[in-house]
Design brief:
The protein is mostly helical and about 120 residues long. It is built from 6 helices and 2 strands; from the N terminus they run H-H-H-E-E-H-H-H. It is elongated, with a radius of gyration of 19 Å.
Amino acid sequence: MRISEAEAVVMEALWESHPLSAEDVVARLGGRNGWAEATVKTLLNRLLNKGAISATKEGRRYLYAPQVAREAWLLEESSSLLERLFDGRVAPLVAHFSQHRKLSRDDVAELRRLLEELDDDRS
């Protein structure tokens, strides 16, 4: 399932807390996107049509909840990115960021720690 960047913003609000009404989603997003309520409702409808969220009628409004786990979406998105740009390999991705100075000292330390954990798990 492909979730657009704008739809992902709405999903983040629903992953954080659900169920939410369209008005609740607008309030959670605040003014940071400058989206009108109609825009949020359009995004909610797109997500409903994709099966990414569900809607339950409560009185005169609908309450929305995610049907896709954030972790599952993250895995699908990251795998797709790796396949499209780096032939499914992580090392060229890391090399790309290191060549363009996008890795901080903390990033490098964390990568080393993760690699050590992987080595320990395989031993």
